């Protein structure tokens, strides 16, 4: 590449770098959310009709790749292959968007319409491959903007992303018009009025929903949420039972959580929640019968039953499994990441929820069943040295809490409380979460959601101090939208943080009635503790719960058609040009 070309290429990349920087700092924990409303302007302006398509696509891809490698850095220590593969894949959206926007500018398609359709479509398509990656959406930057995010109960998080991209598109239209000295055209005034009306309608709708909540929300039971602070490396060593290496044994982790659980019950908790898989044993009765009376799983199960008896409901994150016989020998047929409910009568709820959406590389290795050859190659890069894959659950389990368990539970309760559990990354998947919300008649079938998670994967050590990554706060921010979309409170119990209550307006609650965690939820990273608080229950059903991701589906469909039609149109245009040229040559001859 010649020096002059390199200089032009770097100048072409500069707007993408500016957009990448802004898109980085708008997300938690930095949360410079106002920048979201201008973050795409440099990107859009870079997609000039004068730019060469190949240079534009290459520049967009390289900066996009750097953006994703930097912003999902917390995946790298877990799976280097997963980090690079996911980054290479997600980076593809920028060159596609850049070429589509360039085409829109050539055809003079209004950017205030093109930008939201294209960017929301790209966000949706990101969730279609690699198990789905619903992370770092434009909307997620606004998780503290309670008024704006209320439209998520109609449009989902896509509605907020659409609005942000629309404003960015309008600003780009205005800048281009100013450069062309056409700023005072009627067409531009109408564009501005349209976007202003959309913003005003969003604000008015948000205020109406917020004011309405006073009549629709009632107090539920007292919930105690426990937060351990055990990095995954220590947890895995404990699970393997390596006393010479492990800093904590499974028994020590269990005992620490048991102490927190007792403290929550002493303060009057009706339900105590433990984080994902922090009980490192298989607890379903079908498997427990194969263990001896003094085995760790049986001892844990008895301890939990005894702890719950005459005290409270316990929601426990552990493993479940299925045993099959090969001849006379029992063998593991399946293993699940599950949640168990222990009841105050000492019994266990007859069903457990098993995680349905497993994280690629982290919880399930690809090609395990479809291609043994590729699987064996992949295993050579597996840092754990063995197949750690789990199996996916299939049932949307609903748990029931008969009440009152404590005097603190409202006396007005006329039916059992019902709730469901989403495990870890499932909280980021809108369609999965909404299927818990309503029954077949369109009525609310649960009162709240519980998100148990083990984010100990995403912390590191500095001496004896646990250093959290940006994943922890971003995971919480995404959960905010699941609450608003379905008008369901979410209580989170997360190893290494962030454990909190998110109410049905999407407000992350700071403070609590009792507990040891920091008052501010955003500060609950890399620490252990617990909190006790009342859980709000909202009777409202939502449009989103009934109809799902209709907006982002439509945008994704438009983007796919755009990807197909644009090169096809170019091909037809070139064909016509060649035919015309040949005709002229024949006429001349």
Range of strand content: 15-25%
Query: Strand order of the main beta sheet, please?
Result: 5-4-3-2-1-14-13
| Quantity of strands, as a count | 14
Distance between the termini: 42 Å
Say which CATH homologous superfamily of the largest domain is assigned. Carbon-nitrogen hydrolase
Rough shape? globular
Could you explain how this protein is built, in words?
There is one protein chain. The protein is α/β, with parallel strands linked by helices. The protein folds into two domains: about 5-185 and about 565-575; about 215-355 and about 390-545, 4-Layer Sandwich (Nitrilase/N-carbamoyl-D-aminoacid amidohydrolase), CATH 3.60.110.10. Helix content is about 45%, strand content about 15%. It has 18 helices and 14 strands. The chain has helices at about 5-25, 40-45, 55-70, 80-90, 95-105, 110-125, 150-155, 155-180, 185-215, 230-240, 250-265, 285-290, 295-310, 370-380, 430-435, 470-485, 545, 550-589; strands spanning about 215-225, 270-275, 315-325, 330-340, 355, 400, 415-425, 450-455, 460, 465-470, 490-495, 500, 515, 530-540. The chain has a seven-stranded mixed β-sheet with strand order 5-4-3-2-1-14-13. Strands 6-7-8-11-12 form a five-stranded mixed β-sheet. Strands 9-10 form a two-stranded antiparallel sheet. Helix 6 (about 110-125) runs antiparallel to helix 8 (about 155-180). The longest helix is centred in the last third of the chain and has 39 residues, at about 550-589. The chain is globular, with a radius of gyration of 27 Å. The two termini are about 40 Å apart.
């Amino acid at each position: 590449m010649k020096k002059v070309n390199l200089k032009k290429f770097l100048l072409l990349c500069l707007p993408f770098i500016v957009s990448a920087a802004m898109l980085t700092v708008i997300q938690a924990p930095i949360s410079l959310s106002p920048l979201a409303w201008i973050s795409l302007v440099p990107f859009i302006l870079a997609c000039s009709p004068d730019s060469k398509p190949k240079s534009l696509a290459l520049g967009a891809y390289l900066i996009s790749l750097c953006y994703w490698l930097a912003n999902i850095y917390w995946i790298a220590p877990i799976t280097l292959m997963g980090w690079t593969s996911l980054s290479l894949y997600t980076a593809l959206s920028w060159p596609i968007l850049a070429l589509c926007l360039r085409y829109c500018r050539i055809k003079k398609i209004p950017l205030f319409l093109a930008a939201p359709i294209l960017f929301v479509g790209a966000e949706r398509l990101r969730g279609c491959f690699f198990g789905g990656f619903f992370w770092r959406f434009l909307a997620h930057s606004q998780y503290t903007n309670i008024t704006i995010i209320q439209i998520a109960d109609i449009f989902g998080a896509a509605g907020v992303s659409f609005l942000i991209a629309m404003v960015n598109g309008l600003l780009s239209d205005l800048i281009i018009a100013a450069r062309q000295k056409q700023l005072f055209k009627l067409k531009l005034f109408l564009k501005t009025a349209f976007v202003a009306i959309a913003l005003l309608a969003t604000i008015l709708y948000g205020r109406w929903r917020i004011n309405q909540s006073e009549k629709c929300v009632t107090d539920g039971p007292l919930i105690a949420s426990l937060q351990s602070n055990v990095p995954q490396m220590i947890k895995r060593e404990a699970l393997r039972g390596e006393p010479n290496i492990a800093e904590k044994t499974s028994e020590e982790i269990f005992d620490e959580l048991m102490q927190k659980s007792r403290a929550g019950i002493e303060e009057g908790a009706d339900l105590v929640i433990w984080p994902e898989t922090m009980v490192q044993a298989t607890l379903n009765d079908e498997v427990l019968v194969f263990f001896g009376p003094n085995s760790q799983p049986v001892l844990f199960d008895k301890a939990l039953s005894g702890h719950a008896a005459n005290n409270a409901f316990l929601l426990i994150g552990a493993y479940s499994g299925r045993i099959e016989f090969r001849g006379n020998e029992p063998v593991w047929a399946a293993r699940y990441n599950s949640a168990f409910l222990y009841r105050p009568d000492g019994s266990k709820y007859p069903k457990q929820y098993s995680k349905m959406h497993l994280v690629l590389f982290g919880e399930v290795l690809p090609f395990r069943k479809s291609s043994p050859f590729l699987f064996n190659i992949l295993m050579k890069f597996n840092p754990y040295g063995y197949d750690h894959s789990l199996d996916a659950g299939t049932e949307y389990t609903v748990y029931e809490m008969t009440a009152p368990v404590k005097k603190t539970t409202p006396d007005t309760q006329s039916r059992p409380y019902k709730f469901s559990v989403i495990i870890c990354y499932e909280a980021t998947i809108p369609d999965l979460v909404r299927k818990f919300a309503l029954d077949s008649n369109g009525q609310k079938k649960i009162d709240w959601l519980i998100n148990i998670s083990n984010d100990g994967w995403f912390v590191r050590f500095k001496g004896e101090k646990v250093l959290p990554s940006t994943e922890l706060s971003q995971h919480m921010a995404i959960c905010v939208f699941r609450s608003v979309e379905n008008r369901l409170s979410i209580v989170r119990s997360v190893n290494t943080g962030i454990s909190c209550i998110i109410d049905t307006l999407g407000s992350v609650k700071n403070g609590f009635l009792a507990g040891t965690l920091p008052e501010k939820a955003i500060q609950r990273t890399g620490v252990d503790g617990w909190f006790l608080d009342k859980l709000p229950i909202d009777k409202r059903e939502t449009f989103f719960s009934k109809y799902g991701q209709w907006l982002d589906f439509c945008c994704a469909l438009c983007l796919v058609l755009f990807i197909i039609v644009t090169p096809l149109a170019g091909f037809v245009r070139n064909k016509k040009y060649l035919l015309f040229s040949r005709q002229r040559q024949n006429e001349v001859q």
